[in-house]
């Protein structure tokens, strides 16, 4: 009788959120969640396919877990998340390395699949749905038990077909959750004492909901009126929960509207921080990536943000070494960074992933040592910019939400300001979850150092 389940998670916050959805579904079906692999008779691996390295980590983990199954503890092992549609299931079932594989749109049926496993059959269902399947499922809060910040997925999938990306194939078309359910989840977090909400989506800016269709493409193609877009949703939530901080990720330069920027400006409780991946500074590479915007359009958007919200912090994702990238393309990227001077960034070199448009149509021409050199150049430049940007906070007073004890010094708290910068300061009478005013006295390239000034 399978009863105790354990979830191991890799990849982004959307996978963490999905874990909380799965826990609710299984608890409702009399399964018990355990936070230790060795207590479980059912083990889920929630997976990420964003880079080859992420997938290789999972393959190694499957082998390791099978060695535990053989030597120590019997359990059924299942794979969920973005790799579910990509993995060679016939091989993994034939080798008895996995017992079930379930895709991100089929989690509601997990109890049924588990029950059918008892007959020693394998379960495999990775069908992508055109509906937002988890609309009425309230996630069981597992992460951020410190009750400070938690995330809510507002949309799934993506309609943009960037040539390097697997998401549209692993998560399907864009589907938005109803505002009513999102507000209910915000209420739940508020009542549980959380202070911050992070709205999640592969592309939050293209959030579009209408009771007539979940699919963005249908709402647009059929010109369905009275739909709720991201700026409407953001305004609704910030008005309804004025004492909660609101953050969101991830934005897309092609879909971000001026309305969203104005709403961020209008409401104090919406954090002054935007994560705006640009991936490359070269128009030629942006075209090959099918990013739907060019360098000037990106810079105009940045200028709009800086004009409307001067104190807004900016971060980005970047991929260096994309197929056919030349030194000139690379310099274009460095020059864009020098123009914007981002607060921080997530920087990677290109990974040629099977199943993407780029894999099928382009050659991975840039040698790995060149990719690594260019990435180091980008990281060093960003480190310089981050240090200069954080230096500007010295002698200012920042509103900080305390998240926990500093990893480096147990006598220090750490928290974040509205701009998502980490702030550390000596502990006094405060506690986790407090909003406090901190006088900034110093900085590194990653952290602001301050001292307590007052409670809010
Ligand atoms: S917008 Fe983001 S999630 Fe969508 S295809 Fe492009 S990179 Fe992937």
Characterization of the model:
This protein folds into three domains: 4-125, Methylthiotransferase, N-terminal domain (Rossmann fold), CATH 3.40.50.12160; 149-391, Alpha-Beta Horseshoe (pyruvate-formate lyase- activating enzyme), CATH 3.80.30.20; 397-455, OB fold (Dihydrolipoamide Acetyltransferase, E2P) (Beta Barrel), CATH 2.40.50. It has 14 helices and 21 strands. It has helices at residues 13-28, 52-71, 89-94, 110-117, 167-171, 179-191, 216-221, 230-240, 258-266, 283-288, 295-308, 327-340, 357-361, 368-391; strands spanning 4-9, 32-33, 42-47, 76-81, 100-102, 123-125, 149-153, 155-156, 175-176, 196-200, 208-209, 228-229, 245-249, 273-275, 313-320, 344-349, 397-405, 412-416, 422-426, 435-443, 447-455. The strands form six sheets. It has a six-stranded parallel beta sheet, with helices on both faces. The relative contact order is 0.08. The model has no long low-confidence stretch (mean pLDDT 94). Iron/sulfur cluster is lined by residues 158, 160-162, 165, 167-168, 202-203, 252.
